[in-house]
Each structure stands twice: as C-alpha cells, then as structure tokens.
Please model this.
Amino acid sequence: MPPVEPMLATSVREIPDTGHVEPKWDGFRTVVFRDGDEVVLGSRNGRPLTRYFPEVVEAVRAQAPRRCVLDGEIVLARDGRLDFEALQLRLHPAASRVALLAERTPASLVTFDLLAVGDDDLTGADFAVRRARLEEALGGAAPPVHVTRATGDPATAARWFSLFEGAGLDGVVAKPLTGPYLPGKRVMFKVKHERTADCVVAGFRWHTSGPVVGSLLLGLHADDGSLRSVGVAASFTMARRRELLDELEPYRIPEGGAGAAGHPWGAWADAGSASASGADVPEEFRGRGANSRWAPTKSLTFVPVLPRLVVEVRYDHLEGRRFRHTAHFRRWRPDRDPASCTFAQLDEPVHYDLDDVLGLRPPDRCG
Model:
C-alpha cells in the first residue's frame, strides 16, 4: 500500500560490472500502485503525482496488470529528447490547466522494477527475478508505457553512457542482480556526467538560517555580450557560507546603490521588478514574480555583486541554456577575465533520438 519509498542509488565514478545496466532517466521518480481501476502515482517524497498526469493513469489502467506495484520514472519528451523543464510545468494547481497540458505535452512512464503483481509480493526476491517478472507483465506494453532497456555487457553500457546524453539522459544506473528491494536504501549505483565551467558570479541569495550565503548566482556571456543566468552554486558547509560572505563583501552593491544601475541584472535584484520581461532577464525571475513557482515560500530576490569574480563549478548537464541541477563550487579563478566566460566552453552532447533509447528502433542502432 502507498506510500512506498523508492530504492536509491549511490554515485560512483566508474560503471561497475554488476551484470545489469540501464539508462538513467531524468524525470519524476514514481512508484505506481494499481488495484483495479484505482491508480496512485507516488513520488519520491511521498506526495502523490496522480492528479498531475491523468494520461499516465489511463495508460496504466490500459496496460499494467490489474493488481501490481511498479517502480519507474515519469518523463516528458519533446523533439526527440527529454525535457525536464516542460515536465516541471505539469505540476499545476488548476485542474483545467492540468487537463490542457496533458493533451499538449503528454508524459510517458518508463518502468524498471516490479514490486508486486497479483498476490505476489516480490520485494524479497532477487532483482533478476523481479526484472524477469516485469518483462513478463509488460511485455506487450506500448507507448506511453515502456520497460527500460538494459544490458549486461560493460562495453555496451559504456557506449550508452556516451550516446544517450544527447537524448537528454544524464547517465546510467547499475543494479546487482541479487538482493531484495530495499525502500530508501542506496543499493544501486549511478554514474552521471560531470563537467566543469568557469562562470561569473553576479549575486547571491541569503541562506534560510541567517545572514550567510545560501547560493551563488552564476552567469555566462552570450554572443551579444550580455550576461545570461545559467543557474546557481550551493551546498556549502556553514563555515564556508560565512567565508563566502566575507569574500563577496568587497564586490557587494549596497541596496539602492548607484552600482546597481550598471549591473546586468540590476533591474531584477528588487523583487518588485521581478515581473518585468526582456531578453536579458535571468530565467529564474522571468514571469514568476517575487517567489518561486515550485516553492512558494522561497524568495527569488538576490543581492547583486559587481560581476568581476570568476568561479569554477562542477555540473552534470544542461537543460537548454542552464545547468539542469545545482552546480558545485570548486574554486575561485582570479586568473580568468569575466568577459572570457562564455557559452563556448560548455560541452554539447551529440544529439541522439529518444526513440533509440526507448528501444523503439531496430536494436542494431545502439547495441
């Protein structure tokens, strides 16, 4: 019975030879419960996703066993690749908007484990058994329901790791073939793409615990010379947050100070101007007012600093022109000219069609 916390993975640098490797899907993790016509889409944090994805609910009713519990990922594809930003937009409070988005940007369900079917509780069985039962239960599944591809060949897994990023995936997951399903435990292994970039620090946000740095706002220069927001760097220790405040102090622009007028995002440092629009508006402020759409209590205001500091950050991959996840601070780069921090330094993965990853094309296309 819901909720069930999904089994998790530990990050590792190399793909382990466990006998089973899958693509790492970039979507909303979900444990799917079906009992007749009743379907519940549980999320990783225990909050149901059911109301937001009516098309996935209907697909489960049409294709899944009448009584089952599935582990999988809700994903959304556009133009042959995953689009996580469009998937986030599906979490809308208005029922009419939910119905409209379900029609315009339908989601899919990629399954990769089977916890129960009929009267059989499979959580105590080895993963090899659960995988075989999953293929049996959903062997005839058709889009938008999928069983994830898998390989036991290390060379194929390495090739997938390189190729599938072009379809919007962010790595692979290796699973031991033995062992039960352990909710909340990190018994799998994930390998994600990691890269570095030198970015301009254009501001910071306060931490919720007090007057210390919560996150650094990062920018890169576009071809026209404008500084575009690409994301944030966060996840500092409390001691490091205090140090960062001291390091940023010489560059901080006082509230209402003359320097704000020359700041590339100065007009949007004040929450009262956050609803303005324009090509140079940081993405996190565009059309969202003073608060985050995804966390209404989180303010999106920031403290502007003179864009003269360069920081090297570690990131996994891009979502459009922004870092998909929070970047990680590595070191200051006093040797870099801020004007030299451009999008040209970012790796662009080779484009790869999502249908290949889902196995909807002949298998000789990708091994």
Remarks:
- The two ends are 38 Å apart (CA to CA).
- Helices lie at 54-63, 84-88, 95-104, 127-137, 154-163, 238-248, 354-357.
- Residues 269-282, 284-299, 362-367 have pLDDT under 50 and may be disordered.
- The first strand starts at residue 8 and ends at 11.
